Amino acid sequence: MPASTVVTVLELAGLYVFATSGALLAIQKGFDLVGILMLALLTALGGGIVRDLVIGAVPPAAFTQVSYLVIPLVAATVTFFAHPLVQRLNFMVLVFDAAGLGLFCVTGTLKALEFHLGAIQAVLLGITTAVGGGVLRDITARETPSLVRTDSDLYAIPAAFGATLVVIADRLDLSMPAVAAGAAIFVFVLRVVAMVRHWRAPHARLRSL
């Protein structure tokens, strides 16, 4: 399977789960239908738009492919009607966000490699793609983004691991569909375990004067 096909399949899946996380947070915040749709679109498309602008893939896919708009809208609509089934909205937001994190760190890295970026640049762009939509979602919902919260469990680090795995696999010429799926699952599992066990990145020690 060509790398471009892998990117498309994983990105469409990522659009759905990230849009769902945005819609759930909007419902949790008491947004109306317009606010729910807007937050779902912003969460799903934000990171990918930033990625495409950075690598010069313009106009971004979100503005050239109808599916990139339809899928988030479908996810938001389903969430709007099905959310009473979700008892713990806050945790479900994080679970869907973790799924999007895994999928988008892989697609962002693969697309960077398609545009012949170096290994480090591809990893950084994979991380940006993964966390971008979540950061925009949280800011719009007047939340401190998980990326910079002092009490946040591991967030960008799992994405960095996933992006690094994809780059290594590309350098070793391994089967990318299998590696991409495995890396996305690895990031999702690591993020969820980090949330459950409250694994956090090291903090600098502040010395009292």
Summarize this entry quickly:
The protein is mainly alpha-helical. It has helices at 3-28, 33-55, 67-82, 89-114, 119-140, 156-171, 176-197.
Characterization of the model:
With 209 residues, this protein is an all-alpha fold. The protein has one domain. Helix content is 72%, strand content 0%. It is built from seven helices and no strands. It has helices spanning 3-28, 33-55, 67-82, 89-114, 119-140, 156-171, 176-197. Helix 1 packs parallel to helix 3 (67-82) and helix 6 runs antiparallel to helix 7 (176-197).
Number of helices: 7
Contiguous uncertain segments of 5+ residues = none
Coarse shape: globular
What is the percentage of strand-forming residues?
Answer: under 5%
Overall pLDDT level: 89
**How many individual β-strands?**
0
- How many independent structural domains? 1
- Give a quick account of the main beta sheet: strands, pairing sense, barrel closure: none
Question: What is the topological layout?
Answer:
Layout (H helix, E strand, L loop, with lengths): L2 H26 L4 H23 L11 H16 L6 H26 L4 H22 L15 H16 L4 H22 L12
Keywords, separated by commas or semicolons:
single chain; 209 residues; mainly alpha; 7 helices; 0% strand; globular
